[in-house]
Amino acid sequence: MSDEHQRRALGVAGHPVVETPHLDALARAGTRFTNCWTPSPICVPARAAFATGRWVHDIGTWDSAQAYTGQPSGWAHAVRDAGYDAVSFGKLHHRSAADDDGFTERVLPMNIAGGVGWLQGLPRRRPLPYDEAHELAADVGVGETAYTRYDRRINESASTWLRDPVRHNRPWAAFVSLVAPHYPLSAPDEFAARYPTDQMPPPEIGAIDHQHPAVAAMGHFFRYGDFFDESKVAEARAAYFALCSFMDHHVGQLLGALDDNGLSDDTLIIYTSDHGELLGNRGLWCKSFMYEDSVAVPMILRGTGIPHGATVDANVNLVDVARTIVDVAGGSLDGPGESLVHRATHPDSDRPGFSEYHDGGSITGSFALRLGEWKLVHHEGFEPEFYNLIDDRDELEDLGSAAHVAVERRRCQQVLAQMVDTEAANAGAFASQAVLIEEHGGRESLADVFRFNHTPAPT
Predict the structure, then answer these.
(1) Which of 206, 228, 225, 265 is nearest to 396 (CA)?
(2) What's the rounded Cα separation, in Å, for the pair 273 and 294?
(3) In the chain, which end has fewer C-beta atoms inside a 10 angstrom radius, N or C?
């Protein structure tokens, strides 16, 4: 798993600039899912849903301060119970190393800062100023960061572990979790040199005056774009693509470690990311919004019985990874996920895509649903957004109030209502966050807690 890898940024997906040769080769030797969504476009809730195979509203990990505690049990517990070594390397973004999250060993784990996470995002109805937004543009550059150094340590540890002959003696599941291409947007020299700033294409979607009140409010909170000019946008995009190549290089080393130890033929390999990155599209940066660049992620499978060089357009989700791993290991797990191994060989599906967001910057809960060509974004208490992703892949024409698609919109709303009680989920998120705010001394006290734009890397 990488962090913040948008679906566009893959060579095999046709990106005109980014170089990802190892992921491209993985896709050619396996199956790539073209419509994979994150369960929530923000790290902590997405990773909790990934760990458990259950939706955010089901487990109550609403935001960046309410991380996975090991309950309910997830795929790591299930494979451990089935007799596997379940080992994690790198970023988890769970609550604490003291919690039993199912892993038999955790190497260089990154959990939420201080066990409490990002508290200043909790007062969503009266948000605190997010002054850290200026750091995104200020940190753009060339060179190593704490995150790239951390990824190198993760990769070295995981590669050494995979090369150990002991791996032949006992079944195992390894979760290797890199932070690239997550900001700070600064890449090591040898990767940055591949992407001259003056050759970078501009954002695919130009800046937009966001009219929907829920979207506009989030844009006002996450005002990263205020600190970018044209040259800084080009530098930031070059650094992001360089970080994608940096991450891809590490994927290649991990695959090489499998080959070196004779493990490639009987190992199921899954590559994905926790959420996407807007990368200046619409004048927005980072994640959190329900647009495709934020909510869609790469998903690649390679292994025995997985079709070679295939693409599957059916809707899949990060919650499916838990089901996939547990099915392969022979365990059991509750939840809405389905096996990606099965979906790779049975690509036809009318299953809806789903994601939700209840974290900082949002004045209400947002729920996205994809059904065929249609995408509904339900903002609780507000009018919906509605897009045709075939005719309007960049989501430029909001049909949320258009009469000629009322039937299709109503059908999507009915399917969403079958999946989640949006009113109850929204109320549950706000109630849970209100309790946390009071536990930490009230809204005003949160202005003085540890503030950060990205979680500090373990030292």
Answers:
(1) 206
(2) 11
(3) C
CB neighbour class for 382 (10 Å; exposed up to 12, middle 13-18, buried from 19): middle
Helices (H), 288-379: 292-295, 319-329, 340-345
Indicate if the pLDDT at residue 331 is higher than 90: no
- pLDDT above 70 as % of the chain: 100
Token pair of 125, please?
A: 């109805």
C-alpha distances (whole Å) from 84 to each of 77, 167, 264, 303, 304 are: 10, 11, 18, 18, 19
d(C-alpha 44, C-alpha 66), whole Å: 8
> Which of 61, 44, 32 has the alpha carbon at shortest distance from 117?
44
pTM exceeds 0.90: yes
User: In CATH, which superfamily holds the domain spanning 11-446?
Assistant: Alkaline Phosphatase, subunit A (3.40.720.10)
Domain boundaries, the chain: 11-446
3-state DSSP call for residue 317? strand
Q: For the residues of 426-442, what is the DSSP string, one character each?
A: HHHHHHHHHHHHHHTT-
Q: Inform me whether the pLDDT recorded for 269 exceeds 90.
A: yes
Q: Give exposure, 334-349, as e/b (b: 16+ Cβ within 10 Å).
A: ebbbbbbbebbeeeee
Residue of 310, 294, 304 lying closest to 356 (CA atoms):
294
Q: Tokens standing for 129?
A: 């100023």
Start-end of H helices in 261-304: 292-295
> Do the beta carbons of residue 332 and residue 77 sit within 8 Å?
no
- Helices 319-329 and 43-52, axial angle in degrees (round to 10): 30
Across residues 150-169, what is the average pLDDT?
Answer: 98
Contacts of 172 (CB under 8 A, 6+ apart): 84, 85, 86, 87
Q: What contacts 90, CB < 8 A, 6 or more positions away?
A: 107, 108, 109, 110, 150, 151, 154, 158, 176, 177, 178, 179
Within 8 A by CB and 6+ apart from 361, the residues are 121, 124, 127, 130, 217, 218, 221, 222, 288
CA distance 166 to 301: 25
d(CA 113, CA 79) in angstroms, rounded, equals 28
Average pLDDT over residues 427-444: 97
- The answer on pLDDT for 459 being more than 90 is no
pLDDT, tens only, 109-134: 999 999 999 999 999 999 999 999 99
What is the rounded distance in angstroms from the CA atom of residue 165 to the CA atom of residue 288? Answer: 42
Measured from the Cβ of residue 313, the count of other Cβ atoms closer than 10 Å reads 11
